[in-house]
């Protein structure tokens, strides 16, 4: 589960077409990174996949079903944003459990899922703490825990590490890769950071001005960039 097909998907805000008609397939379990300069349309692409932004044309299919008219919560998708908000008055446990409470899961199931997420994210010994008692990296892990707790088939991450310092960012990259190999879900990760793209991705999608310039593995993009933009952006100027 977690197979995505975008066919002719575009987005306009007023007269500005910020995503040109785009085709893209993402297969189950793939760690895909959208990379490109600020303003190229990365967040808009994610928000359309999540259902937070209506598409102007085209279709989005998830696991064989067209989801164009499906509400975000019905898409089997979960999204982590750059700025995450935890509930300061709730324990880490309740922060992670929140989507399960909303979905009215029974307590034994809440326990099972929260404990599993906490274990994956190494937060087991922090479950009774409040967010204010945690480090920045731990807080970010709680936000990720909340996103993964319902075990969706697709995770979307929009620059989830950009508020962290360099050391934490490096640590979280490793954590997220570990999380991906453990859970095996489809992940789409947005960043403007080429190093993140090159080190984390199975597949990189390079965006520029609302268009896909190239799709490929990090090695393919590095050795066979389609054009100077991709070469320059990925870091191999030859
Ligand atoms: P990125 O995430 O790559 O930095 P965005 O997807 O946020 O880029 O934005 C792509 C383009 O769409 C930008 O030119 C931005 O100004 C424009 N845009 C994004 N959201 C809106 C909106 N709600 N209304 C009008 N323009 C928008
Ligand atoms: Mg963005």
From TrEMBL:
GO terms for cellular component: ATP-binding cassette (ABC) transporter complex, substrate-binding subunit-containing; maltose transport complex. Residues 4-234 form the ABC transporter domain. GO terms for molecular function: ABC-type maltose transporter activity; ATP binding; ATP hydrolysis activity. Keywords: ATP-binding, Nucleotide-binding, Transport. Belongs to the ABC transporter superfamily. This is sn-glycerol-3-phosphate ABC transporter ATP-binding protein UgpC. The gene is ugpC. The chain holds residues 1 to 238 of 372 of the full protein.
């Amino acid at each position: 589960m977690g197979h995505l097909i975008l066919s002719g998907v575009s987005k306009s805000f007023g007269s500005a077409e910020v995503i040109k008609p785009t085709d893209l397939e993402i297969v189950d379990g793939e760690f895909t990174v959208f990379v490109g300069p600020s303003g190229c349309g990365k967040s808009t692409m994610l928000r359309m996949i999540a259902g937070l932004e209506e598409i102007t044309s085209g279709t989005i299919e998830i696991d064989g079903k067209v989801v164009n008219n499906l509400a975000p919560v019905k898409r089997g998708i979960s999204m982590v944003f750059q700025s995450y908000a935890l509930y300061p008055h709730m324990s880490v446990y309740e922060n992670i459990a929140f989507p399960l409470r909303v979905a009215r899961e029974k307590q034994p199931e809440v326990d099972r899922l929260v404990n599993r997420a906490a274990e994956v994210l190494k937060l087991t010994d922090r479950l009774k703490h409040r967010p204010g008692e945690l480090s920045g990296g731990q807080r970010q892990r709680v936000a990720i825990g909340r996103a993964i707790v319902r075990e969706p088939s697709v995770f979307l991450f929009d620059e989830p590490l950009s508020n962290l310092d360099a050391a934490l960012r490096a640590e979280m990259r490793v954590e997220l890769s570990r999380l991906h190999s453990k859970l095996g879900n489809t992940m789409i990760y947005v960043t403007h950071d080429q190093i993140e793209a090159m080190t984390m991705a199975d597949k990189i999608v390079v965006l520029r001005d609302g268009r896909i310039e190239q799709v490929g593995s990090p090695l393919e993009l590095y050795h066979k960039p389609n054009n100077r933009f991709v070469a320059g952006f990925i870091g191999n100027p030859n």
